Structure formats: structure tokens, C-alpha cells
Amino acid sequence: MKKDELFEILKRKLNSVDPETASPEELMAETVAEYLERLLLRGHIPAQFVDSIEGDLREEVTEMFRKKTYGHMDLKSYHESQKNRSKSKGRST
Predict the structure, then answer these.
(1) What is the pLDDT of residues 28-72, one digit of tens each?
(2) Chain centroid to CA 30: how far?
(3) Where are the alpha helices (DSSP H) in 17-73?
(4) pTM to 2 decimals?
(5) What is the distance between the alpha carbons of residues 30 and 71, in angstroms, rounded to a whole number?
(6) No. of H helices and E strands in the chain?
(7) Mean of all residue pLDDT scores within the chain
(8) How many CA atoms lie within 13 A of 8 on its CB side?
(9) Which of 36, 77, 83, 90 has CB atoms 3.0–4.6 Å from 72's, for a disulfide?
(10) Chain centroid offset of residue 15 CA
(11) Angle, helices 50-68/5-16, rounded to nearest 10 degrees
């Protein structure tokens, strides 16, 4: 099964972002921009539809971001929980 490239970009950016300086809006905008650039390089989008598709991608990434960070007040809280999670996994193996 092929992984969802948009979701993979979002996860990568979530894990690499500095929660002290980055905002969720910046992270989501960067995710959309990277994915849109990949689509354009492949030639999958006619020029007249780029704006419409970008808007759809923004909505999709916003929904993914909310689901992925559900229960966390901000990026810092999300990062701390991920660190604790990885420490717990390391102890159980």
C-alpha cells in the first residue's frame, strides 16, 4: 500500500520543526507548498487549477494537523508528548 505523501510531509515537518519559533500556520503553509511543488514538478496540475487545488490542500492539511495534534495546546506540547512516547517505547523493548 502506498503511503499518503501529503501526510508523510506533514509528519516530517511536525517532527523537525522548532516548537519555540514556528507556528502551526507556518508549518501547514510549508507542507502545502512542498506538496504543491512536487505535484507541479510532475506536471499533474493544469495552471488554471493551481489556486483551487492549493485551497483544497490547505483545508486537508489543516484537518490532518488537527487530528495529528489532537489534545495538545500547541506545538511545544505535541513535541514533549512525542519525546515521552519515544522514551516509553525504548524502555519496553
Answers:
(1) 999 999 999 999 998 878 889 999 999 999 999 999 999 999 999
(2) 8
(3) 24-42, 50-68
(4) 0.84
(5) 23
(6) 4, 0
(7) 89
(8) 5
(9) 77
(10) 9
(11) 60
